[in-house]
Structure formats: structure tokens, C-alpha cells
Amino acid sequence: MKKFNLILIFLIFTVVSAFSQVHNPVEWTVGSKKINSKEAVVFIKANVESGWHIYGTSVPAGGPVSTKFTFQPSKEFSVNGKTVEPKAKKKFEDVFKMEVPYHDGEAIFQQKVKLNSNKPVTVSGTVEFMACDKSQCLPPDEYSFKVTVK
Fold first, then answer.
1. In angstroms, rounded to a whole number, what is the distance separating the alpha carbons of residues 131 and 27?
2. What CA–CA distance (Å, rounded) separates 55 from 68?
3. How many Å apart are CA 63 and CA 72, to the nearest integer?
4. pLDDT band (50, 70, 90) for residue 1
5. Other Cβ atoms within 10 Å of 104 Cβ, number
6. Cβ count near 51 (within 10 Å)
7. What is the pTM of this model?
8. Which CATH class is domain 23-149?
9. Where are the domains of the chain?
10. Exposed, middle or buried by CB within 10 Å (0-12, 13-18, 19+), for 143?
11. Which of 129, 108, 132, 134 is nearest to 66 (CA)?
């Protein structure tokens, strides 16, 4: 009888944890393109689920969390300029009492990098972002990325 109760409890916990997955409405992918022997572009793409959005890279103070890119320092490459974002849409957010830039659907961010090596170079970093729909905002999240420029 004790074995049966333990198995039953284990099955209940397994089923409950399977259904309590955290909703993540943003899927990130990363790629790169070499421009010449000394320069490349890293593409960081957000696919945002329908009805959801992420905020732009330049949200005014007092607003939601801006999308922010951080690149791991490396001797193999250096970041060349700021991360370029696609043209953001804007809307007034009652919660923050301000107009904020946002992206929905697909958004491809680009970062130029200067290559310090003729060998393949690994570029890695993180993107911090906040996803919201019309009824809720998820806590800020972070996605770690890594891409090899050949």
C-alpha cells in the first residue's frame, strides 16, 4: 500500500509539473554574415507570438524594461557601434502613462562587429527583454546567444 501511495504521489507531481510550464511568447534565433575579412554583422531575431510585443531599445525612464543587448568581451572581436533595431511602432501605455516603442511579430536586430582574427570567431552575449500582451506583462527575461562567424 505504501508503494502504491508513493507511486500515485509521484505521478501527480509529474503531471502537475508538466502542465505548469512557463509561457514564453518570444522565440530568439541568431545568425551572422561576414561582410569582409575584418567585419561581420550579427543578426538577433525575435519571433513574437501573435498578440504579444517586446519593447524597443530606447524606452523613456519610468517605463517598461527596454530590450538591451550585452556582448561578452573577447579578444577575437569588438563591437562596432550600437545595436540597430528595426523601426519600432509606438503606443500610449496607460500603465506607464507614456508613449513607448515596441515590436511585435518579427524583429531583426543587427550588430556590426570588428573581427580581430582570420579564424572563425565566436560572438556571444545576452538580450534582456520584457514581453507583454493587452492584459499582462511577464517579468523581464534574458536570452543567451552564441554564433560563430566563419
1. 11
2. 10
3. 27
4. low
5. 16
6. 11
7. 0.84
8. mainly beta
9. 23-149
10. middle
11. 129
